[in-house]
Amino acid sequence: MYAARKTSSDCYRTMANLFEPPRYIALEGPIRVGKSTLSRIIAERLHAQRIVEPDENPFLQAFYEGEPGAAFQAQFSFLIHRYQQLKSIEPHPTNVVVADYIFEKDKLFACINLNDAELELYNRYYTEFRAKLPNPDLVIYLQASPDVLKKRLRKKNAPAENSISDQYIEEVVRAYEHFFFHYTASDLLVVNTTEIDFVECHRDLQELLRRLSEPIKGTQYFLPLGESTAATA
């Protein structure tokens, strides 16, 4: 007697049953793209431990104002604090972790802000630290156009960010696009937030949360169903 042949829907259900939700999720993207807000929402919905990027840096204001040597001081301070935060992560079946940055972000900004001699010294420590940290199961890369980020920056009007130039924002956006174009360390969901507001638009938020409950393998793109155009890989 022959066994019944499996249909495609049977195979899909089998794969769905084998799907293990990510235990370590990280969000990333340029300034004012919405990482902190979305990471808070996701962590609340998943009852997850939330790791928030350190924002207290005694050298940051001097860096924004262009003081000599402040770039290396600010970058190294961030490197140490980010490493200390992420080395404590221990993903476990009963413990979900949501972070609003990935460690590679530190080197991305170091390459923008440091000169060759500073970068050589920085890399010695970065390489050692990175080898001791776990990879996220899933990274959510939030994109937005430079013009939208500039508007959000002006609306936020944070005193420490008033010195950030339009040229710097554009350089950061290009660096992120290049980095994630080549990113393969984790599964990746790319979300363009230029016309998405997860705070004001409940439908967009619910659609993203639903998407996170499904398998994400390799690099995939998110576009709310209400949008008129489709994303392509």
Q: In words, what does this structure look like?
A:
With 233 residues, the protein is of the alpha/beta class. The chain has one domain (24-222): Rossmann fold, CATH 3.40.50.300. It has nine helices and six strands. It has helices at 8-18, 35-46, 60-64, 70-86, 104-113, 116-130, 146-156, 166-181, 202-212, and strands spanning 24-28, 49-51, 97-99, 138-143, 187-192, 219-222. Strands 2-3-1-4-5-6 form a six-stranded parallel beta sheet, sandwiched between helices. Strand 5, helix 9 and strand 6 form a beta-alpha-beta unit. Helix 4 runs antiparallel to helix 5 (104-113). The radius of gyration is 20 Å and the shape is globular. The termini are far apart.
Keywords:
single chain; 233 residues; alpha/beta; Rossmann fold; 6-stranded parallel β-sheet; disordered C terminus
Q: Topology, pairings included?
A:
Blueprint (H helix, E strand, L loop, with lengths): L7 H11 L5 E5 L6 H12 L2 E3 L8 H5 L5 H17 L10 E3 L4 H10 L2 H15 L7 E6 L2 H11 L9 H16 L5 E6 L9 H11 L6 E4 L11
Parallel strand pairs: 1-3, 1-4, 2-3, 4-5, 5-6
Helix pairs in contact: 4-5, 4-6, 5-6
